[in-house]
Amino acid sequence: MASTPSSAPSSGAGFGAGAGAGAGASTLEGTLSKWTNVMKGWQYRFFVLDENAGLLSYYTSKEKMMKGVRRGCVRLKDALIGIDDQEDNTFTITVDHKTFHFQARHSEEREQWVRRLEDTIRRHANRSRLWDSQSAFYIAGGYTKESSYGGKRPNHLELLARRAMLDHIKHSIVSLQIAKNMAHPINGIYNGPQAAASTTSSASGGVIIGGGIGMSKDMLAGKGEPGDDEDDSITENDEVQDTNEVHDGPVPWCRRDQLTFLAEQVSHHPPISAFYAEHYNKKITFAAHVWTKSKFLGLSIGVHNIGEGVVTLVDRSEEYIVTFPNGYGRQVSILTVPWIELGGSVEIKCPQTGYHANVEFLTKPFYGGKRNKVSAEVYAPNDKKPFVSIAGEWSGLMEAKWHDKNKTEVFVDVNRIPIFKKQVRPIVEQDEYESRRVWKEVTAGLKFNDIERATNAKFVVEQQQRDQVKMRKEYDLAWEHKHFKPVGENWIYAKSLSQRIYLQEKEARR
Question: Its domain of life (predicted)?
Answer without folding.
Answer: Eukaryota
